């Protein structure tokens, strides 16, 4: 096994640990928001968890810690965190419902499509940068709605930031969902060709 293959098969890496911690802290966010009714603390935690998605990606790329496991669990952690944020804010009522519902529909569409493609034997699709950028923007925009509701200091500024990040993130997310359609069809074709031996020598 060459060095690149060994690196790809690693499990215990710094990015993977950060991703796991992000997953473990999702219930804490929901408890702060819905159980403890502390919108400021919930917003800060949500923003930090969103930022760690960039941090673990940076570490993986620049310190040779990319792994096959990371490519699988990182988008799963993104989906779980975004689902939790949307559901929590829908219950809390701090963010516009139409934005949250659009985000929820998009995430359900992508999740169902990924599962259906896997069941059909399609090859794994790499994450599209627009989707990552959209999720990153939403993970800052949504907590800003909480801050605008929970504080009087800089409330107007938080609200402007919330709208800017959320609309931008939503636009990127919807665009990436459209980009996934041809990528999904190609992945499905390649998966079927690999199973039937088409194109092999």
The profile of the biggest β sheet is: none
Number of domains: 1
Strand content: under 5%
Range of helix content: over 70%
Order of helices and strands: HHHHHHHH
CATH class: Mainly Alpha
Task: Give an overview in words.
With 201 residues, the chain is mainly alpha-helical. The protein has a single domain (3-190), classed as Four Helix Bundle (Hemerythrin (Met), subunit A) (Up-down Bundle). Helix content is 81%, strand content 0%. The longest helix has 42 residues, at 155-196. The two termini are 23 Å apart.
Short description:
The chain is an all-alpha fold and 201 residues long. It has 8 helices and no strands.
How are the SSEs placed, and which strands pair?
Layout (H helix, E strand, L loop, with lengths): L2 H6 L5 H11 L1 H10 L3 H24 L5 H25 L4 H23 L9 H22 L4 H42 L5
Helix pairs in contact: 2-4, 2-5, 3-4, 3-5, 4-5, 4-7, 5-6, 5-7, 6-8, 7-8
Write a concise keyword list for the protein shown above:
single chain, 201 residues, mainly alpha, Four Helix Bundle (Hemerythrin (Met), subunit A), 0% strand
């Amino acid at each position: 096994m060459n060095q690149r293959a060994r690196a790809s098969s690693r499990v215990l890496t710094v990015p993977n640990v950060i991703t796991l911690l992000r997953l473990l802290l999702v219930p804490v966010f929901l408890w702060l928001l819905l159980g403890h009714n502390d919108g400021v603390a919930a917003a800060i935690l949500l923003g930090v968890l969103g930022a760690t998605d960039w941090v673990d990606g940076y570490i993986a790329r620049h310190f040779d810690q990319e792994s096959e496991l990371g490519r699988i669990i990182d988008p799963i952690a993104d989906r779980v965190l975004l689902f939790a944020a949307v559901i929590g804010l829908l219950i809390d009522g701090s963010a516009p419902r139409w934005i949250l519902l659009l985000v929820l529909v998009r995430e359900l569409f992508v999740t169902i499509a990924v599962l259906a493609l896997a069941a059909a034997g399609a090859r794994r699709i790499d994450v599209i940068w627009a989707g990552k950028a959209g999720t990153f923007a939403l993970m800052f925009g949504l907590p800003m709605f909480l801050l605008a509701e929970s504080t009087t200091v800089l409330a107007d500024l938080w609200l402007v930031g919330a709208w800017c990040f959320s609309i931008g993130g939503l636009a990127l997310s919807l665009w990436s969902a459209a980009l996934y359609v041809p990528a999904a069809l190609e992945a499905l074709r390649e998966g079927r060709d690999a199973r039937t031996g088409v194109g092999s020598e």
